[in-house]
Amino acid sequence: MTQANEPSRIPLLPVDEAKAAADEAGVPDYMAELSIFQALLNHPRLAGVFNDLLASMLWHGALDRRLRELAIMRIGWLTGCDYEWTQHWRVASRLGVSAEDLVGVRDWQAHNGFGATERAVLAATDDIVRDGAVSDPSWAACEREFDGDTTVLIELVTAIGAWRMVASILRSLKVPLEEGVASWPPDGVSPPS
């Protein structure tokens, strides 16, 4: 598991250089203040495509935002990705997802706050992280919960795959949390190694 104090494997661009690279890549300037983009903007073209994919789901997605954030939090937990957990704790909290539900993804099968839809999404998330694909039973549950809406189902699988990729990038490059950001909110508890 990557520790918060480990050095990044690649240099993080200073904010002014990251903003210039962001302009070149078509990435919003404010993203250049995040460590992930200070790393990725070393490759502006790729950073632009990466931003477009994630932004399309974050800001224009068909999948319910709460469900997306629960899946992302589960990915952060399963992969031991402190950066993903910590950043999306903040995103999900701003969207109104309760701290109880966010902590609940750690052991979602035992959390009483989730109904059939959350359980279907989290089972699909576990499948993709563990096996690289959604199992037939999880797919059937998602299909039932989303009334067969192919747009939502495609986006669900894409979101899980995309944020699984994000966790791999963050951990592989050892991207650190931004200065002053506390690790593993709300209680500093990280997944077992």
TrEMBL record:
<feature type="domain" description="Carboxymuconolactone decarboxylase-like">
    <location>
        <begin position="44"/>
        <end position="126"/>
    </location>
</feature>
<dbReference type="GO" id="GO:0051920">
    <property type="term" value="F:peroxiredoxin activity"/>
</dbReference>
<dbReference type="InterPro" id="IPR029032">
    <property type="entry name" value="AhpD-like"/>
</dbReference>
<dbReference type="Pfam" id="PF02627">
    <property type="entry name" value="CMD"/>
</dbReference>
<dbReference type="InterPro" id="IPR003779">
    <property type="entry name" value="CMD-like"/>
</dbReference>
<protein>
    <submittedName>
        <fullName>Carboxymuconolactone decarboxylase</fullName>
    </submittedName>
</protein>
